[in-house]
């Protein structure tokens, strides 16, 4: 259990810090009128989650998935991680469960 929890926790700290810094940079560069930071992290994070999940599925490399996908990118994007979980549930189980 600790071999899974520790990488998720470390990755979560990295992702949360990256999200905060992305938001700070976005406000400085684009201004405070629109949530550019949120849009940026969701686009970039969702893309990276998709790339990593496909790469790991092809290579059977699940050792880093807890750290990268759940930890780093999950805390970086928050919402994108929920979308990934919903997709995985819909592929493996009933559609109703994915809707919930």
Task: Provide keyphrases for this structure.
single chain, 100 residues, mainly alpha, 5 helices, 85% helix, 0% strand
**Which H/E pattern describes the elements?**
HHHHH
Portion in helices: over 70%
Q: Output the radius of gyration.
A: 15 Å
Question: What is the number of domains?
Answer: 1
**End-to-end gap:** 27 Å
Reported for the largest beta sheet, the result is: none
Given the helix and strand composition, which structural class is it? Answer: mainly alpha
Would you report the number of β strands? 0
- Percent of sequence in beta strands: under 5%
| Unreliable runs | none
- Mean pLDDT metric: 81
Query: What is the overall number of helices?
Result: 5
Any idea what the shape is? globular
């Amino acid at each position: 259990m600790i071999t899974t929890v520790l990488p998720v926790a470390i990755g979560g700290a990295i992702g949360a810090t990256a999200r905060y810094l992305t938001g700070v940079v976005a406000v400085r560069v684009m201004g405070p009128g629109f949530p550019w930071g949120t849009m940026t992290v969701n686009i970039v994070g969702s893309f990276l989650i998709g790339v990593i999940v496909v790469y790991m599925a092809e290579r059977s490399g699940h050792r880093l998935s807890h750290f990268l996908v759940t930890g780093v990118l999950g805390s970086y994007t928050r919402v994108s991680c929920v979308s990934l979980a919903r997709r995985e549930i819909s592929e493996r189980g009933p559609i109703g469960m994915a809707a919930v």
